[in-house]
Specification:
The structure holds two protein chains of two kinds. Chain A is mainly alpha-helical. Chain A has eleven helices and four strands; from the N terminus they run ααββαααββαααααα. Classes of the chains: A mainly alpha, B alpha+beta. At the A-B interface, loops of A face helix 9, helix 11, helix 13 and strand 16 of B.
């Protein structure tokens, strides 16, 4: 439901709340219970929840509609989480398969790089990369990404979480490379790349599929943390993390500003973890049999 | 055992008393950021200045009066009288008072002034550019030898005279004798930042403990009253402990609960309703802070190299919205010079603003039409600001205002410590963003020197709009040689209007400061808001029974 509501944010914003997530209404007034109330008071105190279409959850310090920002922010957080997780899986699986299958020097180099990344706490690595890329963006040959782009947090999260996929995939590839079907493929004249992607990949796929929802949840959490520390999604673009960051300054007068996006992050990550468990049970015959035995 | 217990009880009973048997009068102040320096040569920011003004009394000072014009009047500090200016308006002569001593008892000598200026120039103080107009100062800086002579400063310890010769006349130079950076310091003070061991004081307090990242302590200067400085009263409290508490909300809560007696910064907006409810009798707002906030537009870069675009932005900026985001901390305006400054025109801040009354909604349609006329629709614009409340919100709101008139703007927020350097670096191609200035001294030159062609630099550029206008350059050059400010106030007023009409910048208001003190402080009798020094800590006094 959260995912659907967030993805439909433009419909909500334009048709229901009649505003965009960036539009400021600091000097406007809104009708609440028959009275006209300022959206932002003289002392900068924003209006609280009206429970109507306009300012359903109230406004922030700039007089922006919190509900609209929450929906757009959710869309950004979910998209960043999904895209970053996809990038992590693509790169992690490729690296894990190559390292595990090739072995030798190539394995040493790839594993060494992955281990270096693994050694850094994810958040620290994310903050360092985010801070470095935030102001001037990325400009390497044809690849040009501006500092405020949402691609930056995607890139940062993908780099920071690659070891979570690459290491288990490598471990599996290492054990699979000595199995009969791999020897048979080699004897039939298959080249290493087709062996990795036609023979090994289907065997590591269940692990990756189980890991995927967990990585999405992890990416959403990391995005929120980076945004809270000012190196994730850049304002005025909302994300749940930036909304928590903005709301923290107003905990006294408007606690909903920080608590609601915080609760949505927690709920989404919890849901993705449950989804991960469900997928694992569905794909793992041992777990299925164990569940069946328990039921009977 | 009994004897030990009795002695301990006696010690506890006496712990708050001084030698005369009077109660120790101590207060605690909250700072949201450590001062960048407590060395008088290096501390030039508002945060450092607030403390240093209590400690270092220069040769001249400002009359201690809350009245706008009286408070801006220069009076002798350590000097016997105001400086005498030579006929060619280039030489200032002063004489030190007799028998002056620093807080540690060392005699204050005329040559100490030259030592102070040498430290400012040699140590790369942020105030150094002000003193580079002294004859030979640039040469002294270039040589890099601390003990070398500055040709334009002549002092005589025996006659206590100080003569300063300028390279060219500079109307505001007498104000430079009143900056704490120019306070005499003993000649053995090293040419190194003395923040942790500040030089002995000449003002109402001395710094007795300094760990600026955590706290520092000011104590009453025992020698101050013997200096005989008329117009600068001795302090009402004995000790001030300044604590660094980054969280302003925590500071305000501590002031509410009496754990702190005053917070240097205004209380955060989300606590203002609580303060209004619980402590309105000890909170007050002041407009006359000598500051202006504006939005810079780099006139060397597109689309702001087109005057029509700059005018469009002036029409489009919604100043009431920006003031609301400042949560009561800003008065909408249009004037570059702030209220109280000679040359300030109140009408320009209200109905006389060429782009509409700043207290009313903006003329967005007119702005859109100008953008269309200039062919700037869809022009990419980066808006520079920094990650602090409310400046981050101001940057975002301004971005949205630019988007509303057809530009394609996006904000770029950097951390506050690097913000000034970032927008002052031409390599970053800063197009537009937030900017602000607070007077270094009450003379329009302090504002206008930053908008001349000479002020444009490739790095550390303070002329962020890159204003290069022959009328401004020529007028500033002419007026900086006029020592009688009263006779040229009209010229400054016209120049202020000219700058605004040419739409080089978008002045959007002047800061309002909130003074908030604890229940221990006698708010009615002992809070004092000076037009230059703002809250004067030496005037804080405790209510009876709070000592």
């Amino acid at each position: 439901m959260i995912v659907a509501a967030a993805l439909a944010a433009p419909l909500w914003a334009h048709l229901v709340a009649d505003t965009t997530p960036q539009e400021t209404h600091a000097t406007a007034t809104v009708e609440v219970g028959g009275d006209r109330v300022p959206v932002v008071g003289r002392h900068g105190d924003p209006i609280g929840p009206t429970w109507h279409a306009h300012f359903f959850l109230g406004a922030d310090a700039q007089g922006r509609d919190v509900m609209v920002r929450l929906l757009y922010g959710g869309r950004n957080s979910l998209l960043i989480g999904l895209v970053a997780a996809l990038a992590t899986v693509l790169v992690g699986v490729a690296l894990g398969l190559i390292a595990g299958y090739a072995g030798g020097l190539l394995d040493d180099v790839i594993s060494g790089g992955v281990n270096v990344l693994w050694a850094f706490p994810g958040i620290l690595l994310g903050v360092a990369l985010g801070a470095a890329l935030k102001v001037n963006g990325l400009d390497i040959g044809p690849v040009q990404i501006s500092g405020g782009s949402v691609v930056i947090p995607v890139l940062v999260i993908a780099i920071a979480t690659v070891p979570y996929v690459a290491r288990p995939v490598r471990a599996q590839a290492l054990s699979l490379r000595h199995r009969e079907f791999v020897f048979a493929a080699r004897a039939a004249g298959m080249r290493p790349a087709p062996i990795m992607f036609r023979e090994l990949l289907p065997n590591v796929a269940p692990t990756v599929i189980v890991l995927f929802p967990l990585i999405v949840g992890n990416a959403i959490q990391l995005e929120a943390a980076l945004a809270f520390l000012g190196v994730g999604v850049q304002p005025p673009e909302p994300s749940w993390g930036t909304l928590v960051d903005e709301g923290v300054h107003r905990l006294q007068t408007a606690p909903a500003l920080a608590l609601v996006p915080g609760a949505l992050i927690a709920l989404t990550v919890l849901t993705l973890n449950l989804l991960g468990n469900g997928v694992r049970r569905a794909l793992d015959p041992y777990a299925r049999r164990h569940a069946y035995v328990k039921q009977t | 055992m009994l004897l030990v217990a009795a002695a301990a009880t006696w010690l506890l009973a006496c712990s708050g008393d001084d030698d005369d048997g009077k109660r120790d009068r101590s207060i605690a102040i909250g700072y949201y950021a450590p001062p960048e320096s407590l060395d008088p040569a290096m501390g030039f920011s508002l945060v450092s200045g607030a403390a240093l003004n209590q400690v270092y009394l220069p040769l001249l000072t400002y009359r201690r009066s809350e009245d706008q014009s009286k408070g801006r009047q220069l009076i002798p500090g350590l000097a016997e009288d105001l400086p005498k200016l030579s006929g060619d308006r280039r030489t200032y002569t002063l004489k030190l008072k007799k028998g002056l001593r620093y807080s540690d008892g060392t005699p204050i000598r005329a040559g100490d002034f030259e030592h102070a200026i040498k430290r400012v120039l040699n140590m790369g103080s942020p105030a150094a550019p002000f003193y580079e107009n002294i004859a030979g100062a640039v040469h002294y800086e270039a040589r890099g030898k601390p003990d070398a002579d500055i040709a334009g400063i002549e002092t005589d310890d025996s006659t206590r005279t100080i003569a300063v010769r300028l390279a060219r006349p500079y109307a505001a130079f007498d104000h430079l004798f009143a900056l704490t950076v120019a306070t005499p310091v003993p000649r053995d003070t090293p040419f190194e930042n003395q923040t942790t061991h500040p030089p002995p004081s000449t003002g109402p307090f001395e710094i007795t403990r300094s760990d600026p990242s955590r706290e520092f302590v000011l104590e009453r200067n025992p020698k101050f009253e013997s200096l005989g400085v008329d117009g600068v009263p001795p302090p009402s409290v004995d000790r001030i402990t300044v604590k660094i508490i980054v969280d302003k909300t925590k500071q305000a809560e501590d002031v509410l609960d009496g754990k702190l007696d005053y917070m240097y910064d205004s209380p955060p907006s989300d606590l203002l309703p609580t303060i209004e409810k619980r402590a309105s009798d000890r909170y007050e707002e002041h407009l006359l802070t000598g500051s202006t906030n504006w939005l810079f537009m780099n006139s060397r870069l597109p689309p702001f190299d087109d005057a029509r675009v700059r005018r469009a932005v002036n029409y489009a900026v919604d100043k009431p919205t920006l003031a609301r985001i400042y949560a009561g901390g800003l008065q909408e305006g249009c004037s570059y010079l702030p209220p109280g400054m000679p040359g300030y025109d109140e009408k320009l801040d209200t109905t006389g603003c060429p782009f509409g009354d700043p207290r009313k909604p903006p003329d967005v349609d007119r702005a859109r039409a100008l953008i269309r006329e200039a062919g700037a629709e869809g022009a990419k614009v980066t808006v520079w600001g920094f990650n602090q409340t409310p400046q981050s919100d101001i940057t975002q709101a301004y971005t949205e205002m630019l988007n509303k008139i057809g530009l394609d703007a996006s904000p770029k927020l950097v951390d506050f410590p690097i913000w000034r350097e970032t927008i002052g670096n031409a390599k970053n191609r800063p197009q537009t963003g937030i900017d602000a200035f607070t007077q270094a001294f009450p003379h329009p030159l302090t504002f206008f020197e930053t908008v001349t062609t000479d002020a444009i630099r490739p790095t550390s550029n303070k002329n962020t709009s890159n204003i290069s206008d022959p009328v401004i350059d020529a007028t500033v050059r002419r007026l900086e040689g006029e020592p009688d400010i009263a006779s040229v106030t009209g010229d400054w007023q016209r120049l202020n209007r000219y700058l605004v009409e040419r739409a080089y910048i978008v002045p959007y208001g002047h800061r309002i400061r909130g003074t908030f003190v604890s229940d221990r402080i006698d708010f009615e009798k002992c809070t004092f808001f000076h037009p230059i020094y703002l809250e004067d800590w030496s005037r804080f006094c405790l209510k009876e029974g709070e000592e």
